[in-house]
Design brief:
Spore Coat Polysaccharide Biosynthesis Protein SpsA, Chain A, alpha/beta
Length: 316
C-alpha cells in the first residue's frame, strides 16, 4: 500500500445517455484505487438516466439539475469535490481496471507534471472494440500550432493546476477540452502512459458525429486566436501564429464539411492557405480532408457490417 493515497475525484456528467451510464459508473466502482470520490451529475436528462443513477445511490454522490451544458456541469462537479486529483469520464465512455492507480503513480513520480493521459480503445454502441488509439507523446507546440489533442478519456490532472488556470470555458460546446488543455499545458508537463486505460464510445448520438452549426465550427479558430493574445505565451510559440491559425481554419473547414456546409468549408480552406500557403502541400492537411470523407462513413459502415453478421449468425 502507498503511504499517501490522495483523493481522486471523478465526475460523470450525464445527459440522455442512460443506456450507457451504468457501464461508466461500474468502470469507476471497479477501480482498485482505495480513495476515489465518485460524483454523477444528471444534467436535465429526459431518458432513464435518473433510474440508472438510483441503482447506485449508496455508492456514488449524485445530483439532478436543470440542463446547463457539459462545461458548467464539470466545473460544478470539480468545485464541490475534495480530491487533490481531478478527472471526468463521459457517460458513454469507461475507465479500464487500474486506470486510477496508474495515473496517481505517474503523478507521484513526476511532481512537475500537471496531467497524465493514456491510450484508449474505440468501441461501438454495443461495446464492441473498433480499434486502439495510440496517443502521441505530449508536445505543447504541436498541440497549439497543429491542433493535435492527445489527452482523451482517461486524463487526470491536479486540483492545484485547475485552481490556477480556472474553470472550463462554458461558452464552448465541442472543443472545450482542447481549450482547457492548451491553458493547462502552460502550467506544467503532460505525461503519456503508453497503455490502454479507457474506452471511447462511437455511436450516432455521440458528440463526434453530431451535426455542428457554424458557431461551433468556428471554435478552433477562436480558441487558437485567444491563445496568441495571452501575455505569458513563450516567444518561440508566439512566432508560430500564422501557421497555428492556418491549421485552426483547416479544422474549422473539416467541421463545416462534416456538417454539410460546403461553402463555409471552402471559405475556411481559402483562409487557411492564405495565412500559411505551405499548408496546401502537407500530409497533415491531406489527412484532415480525407478524414472528412471517410471517418464518419467508416465507423457507421463497420457498425452496420457487424450488425449484419450478428443477424446472420443468429439465424443459423
Amino acid at each position: 500500500m502507498r503511504s499517501h493515497s490522495p483523493v481522486v475525484s471523478i465526475v460523470i456528467p450525464a445527459y440522455n445517455l442512460g443506456r450507457y451510464l451504468g457501464e461508466a459508473i461500474e468502470s469507476v466502482l471497479n477501480q482498485d484505487y482505495p480513495n476515489i470520490e465518485r460524483i454523477v451529475l444528471d444534467d436535465g436528462s429526459s431518458d432513464n438516466t435518473r433510474d440508472v443513477i438510483k441503482q447506485y445511490a449508496s455508492r456514488v454522490y449524485a445530483e439532478s439539475q436543470s440542463n446547463m451544458g457539459q462545461a458548467k456541469t464539470l466545473n460544478k462537479g470539480w468545485r464541490m469535490s475534495k480530491g487533490e486529483i481531478l478527472a471526468f469520464i463521459s457517460a458513454d465512455d469507461a475507465l479500464l481496471p487500474g486506470a486510477v492507480s496508474k495515473a496517481v503513480t505517474c503523478l507521484d513520480a513526476n511532481p512537475d507534471a500537471v496531467l497524465t493521459y493514456s491510450d484508449f480503445k474505440l468501441i461501438d454502441g454495443d461495446s464492441r472494440a473498433i480499434r486502439r488509439v495510440r496517443t502521441a507523446e505530449f508536445n505543447y507546440e504541436d498541440m497549439l500550432v497543429n491542433g493535435s489533442c492527445p489527452p482523451g478519456p482517461g486524463a487526470f490532472f491536479r486540483r492545484s493546476a485547475f485552481e490556477t488556470v480556472g474553470p472550463w470555458d462554458d461558452s464552448l460546446k465541442i472543443m472545450l477540452d482542447y481549450d482547457y488543455w492548451l491553458r493547462l499545458g502552460l502550467r506544467g508537463r503532460f505525461i503519456r502512459i503508453p497503455e490502454v486505460l479507457a474506452l471511447y464510445r462511437v455511436h450516432d448520438a455521440s458528440q463526434t458525429f453530431a451535426g455542428f452549426d457554424e458557431s461551433k465550427a468556428q471554435e478552433p479558430v477562436s480558441i487558437v486566436a485567444r491563445m496568441f493574445e495571452m501575455h505569458d505565451l513563450p516567444e518561440r510559440l508566439a512566432s508560430c501564429k500564422a501557421k497555428a491559425l492556418s491549421n485552426a481554419n483547416l479544422i474549422s473547414a473539416q467541421l463545416n464539411f462534416r456538417a454539410g456546409r460546403a461553402r463555409a468549408g471552402f471559405l475556411r480552406l481559402r483562409k487557411a492557405f492564405f495565412l500559411y500557403p505551405r499548408n496546401l502541400f502537407t500530409i497533415r492537411s491531406a489527412r484532415r480532408l480525407l478524414n472528412v470523407l471517410f471517418n464518419r462513413f467508416g465507423h457507421r459502415s463497420l457498425h452496420r457490417w457487424r450488425q449484419m453478421l450478428s443477424r446472420i449468425r443468429g439465424g443459423r
